[in-house]
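To whoever picks this up:

The parser on our side crashed when reading a file containing two proteins. I've narrowed it down to the boundary between the first structure block and the second sequence. Both blocks are reproduced below exactly, byte for byte. First block:
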Amino acid sequence: MVSDNPKNSQCIKGFRFIPIKLLDVAGLVPGAHEGKGLGNKFLSELVRADVLLHIIDITGSLDKNGNKVEPGSQDPYEDVIFLENEINLWFKGIIEREDWTKFTKTIKKGKGEIIDALYQRLSGLSVKKEHIEHAIKLSKLTEKHILDWDDEDILLFSKHLREISKPIIIVANKIDKEIGLDLYKQLKSRYDKKIIACSALAEYFLRKYNEEGIIEYIPGDSDFKILQKEKLSSNEIETLKKIKLKLLKDFGGTGIQEVLNYAVFTILSQISVYPVSNLNTLADKDGNVLPDVFLIPQGTKLRDFIEEKIHTDLAKHFIYGMEARNKIKLGENYILKDNDVIKIFSAK
């Protein structure tokens, strides 16, 4: 067991928590893809995202415009489908904008040219060429020239491209409410993609009491320990009891950490890598043990990691790397593995 001194992250009871960037955006209203409400502003902000977390009120207490309604009167399934359709139509609008006919006529029949042309056209959406190629295959448009795509083809392509490049994770909030649990079960029976049940309020309470030293709680855990019961009121004790019985016991946690882990490690296929200066102490030049950890995509080569995450000069003067556990020399094309601890040797 190594006692670390994190600089760019946090360690709690042996668990390393790595910061990620989250962007909070306002909800959509019907017709957002046409610019209604704050539609354009909201949708343009989605360009910066790799994964979309759609947080829905699983108790059905908010309508499509965000207004409070009687619990259970709004169907969460409609919220899910509504958002997906709005974003799919937004993609479609960007793809076929006013010069679509002119655009398609300039493309020859070569498959590569079609992908390149679409890639240039969609550069503002931060999509990759492989996303486009995969979406074309899923839409069964490989044998159909882009000039012959009809409205249905474009919408289907837009849908698949959005699903690939901006996947959505449904986060069912307020699962600790009784009506929320009932609607969650109904949603799961109608929607076959990933849904993660959670309670943001429960996570807030657990973290608050943990920071105050009243309980011991690690984000993502399925339990907590009360340390100072005397500092809790009877109502607070009852609240914690309900969180433990109705949430942690049944769902294995509040769901918040599960959402983040699923987005980063399952959807984005990221791994963790720890660069160090000393192979024996696993520390940096200042003696901090395992000071930094970086999230990178699976399949990343060592040299690319150095250039993108550490320093371009270090990559230019790279000699070799060394893996700390087994003291194995690593070449520039070494494919990094999850939890690799490495030292970089360079000529500078």
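<<boundary where parser fails>>
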Amino acid sequence: MFEASVYTHRRNALRSLLKNGIIFLPGNTEAPMNYPANTYHFRQDSNFLYFFGLTQPDLAGIIDLDNGTDILFGNNFGIEDIIWMGPQPTMEERAALVGVESTHPMDELKNYIAETLAKGRQVHFIPPYRAETQLWLSSLLGIRPSFLKNYASPQLIRAIVSLREIKDEIEIIEIERMVDVAHMMHTTAMQMAHPGITEQEIFGRMEGIALSKAHGTSFPIILSVNGQTLHNHSHGNVLTQGRLMVSDAGCESADGYCSDITRTIPVGGKFSQKQKDIYQIVLAANETAIEESQPGVFYRDVHLKAALMISAGLRDLGLMKGNVEDAVAAGAHALFFPHGLGHQMGLDVHDMEGLGENFVGYDEEVHRSSQFGLAYLRMAKRLKPGHVITVEPGIYFIPALIQQWKEQNLHAEFIDYAQVEKYLDFGGIRIEDDILITPDGCRILGKPIPKSVADVETEVSRGL
């Protein structure tokens, strides 16, 4: 938790961006796994965390725009709770930690909201993403759960995005600490990537590092020799010599700040020439995209630059053909690179995605494309100093997609399907770094994680 003044400043900054009414920010509740007392690891709502800083369940925050006051609703713990959990701070003590002077029991929230609505004051809220929060908001506001998204405040959403997307120094420090833990996770995966090891063993070791050195993973670890499946959470394969293993993983701090790194690793420690050729194309796209990421540049243009480099590299290998600019304009490259270059990152690994991707990654200057591949770009707008962005180009050989496009004779003027079919068992390659946009360019966050061919091969050999 940061100092109380940080949260007071954030709430005042938010207050300055909206005119009247109240801002209602519900925290999360516990979520049971298989019976009420056996719960998943608790994760606080990121917007509540950003403005009110408390990581306990069953809290709600109010920012009163008219009266200039902040209120926390929540209950003090009773003796039955203390028996199981030990002594706990009072609500007043918790509130003081984040600069809030006024607290009320949770059962007073319903009347508070009802009185606010009765006076004709606006209640600004953001779209809920958990079912229990939807039901709670529905009962408090008198809005059917299915209509809550329609009544969410676009003014509040835009204001939160404008604040949260610009990271200050204390946030960057937290993110870099998590990238450094991710360094341990990924170098451990490299050192374990040898024939006979199961994906599950590597997955378990990586998750253990995240739990022992941080506050757990920032998303379920993606680790598979079937890297052609973009988000592969199955870990049942045994590693065999010559396969490629994609490792996409990060962790988060106690305050919720994330890392998100991907590396692709040759099982046994040596890339084949075929693998090296594809890997070098992805690496060049990654490094060029990082160089191109500067203030004032549309991230969509950086994405398209990476797509051009991938298309040019695949043309040099004979998998694509024709004019690469025309191929990218037509979307032919998406057979191999079907996702966006990256996304914002911070308190959420896909930062603020719960507010709506179009509010976070797009604005009045740039709108989402409907083209396959480009439509999946989460971040397209102009880069600003303080943005933290992932840069994660990839090349994948997805048999079902290749078969579909071939049967449709799709983009045949740009794709040599006879050559592509020689790669059906290749898998996929993705390389991802986390970068900070600075006033004069950008920098990669955290301790450098091996990504050149030589450095990855050397790291794998350390596990022998």
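After patching the parser it read the second block fine. The longest strand covers residues 244-249. The CA atoms of residues 327 and 414 lie 6 Å apart.
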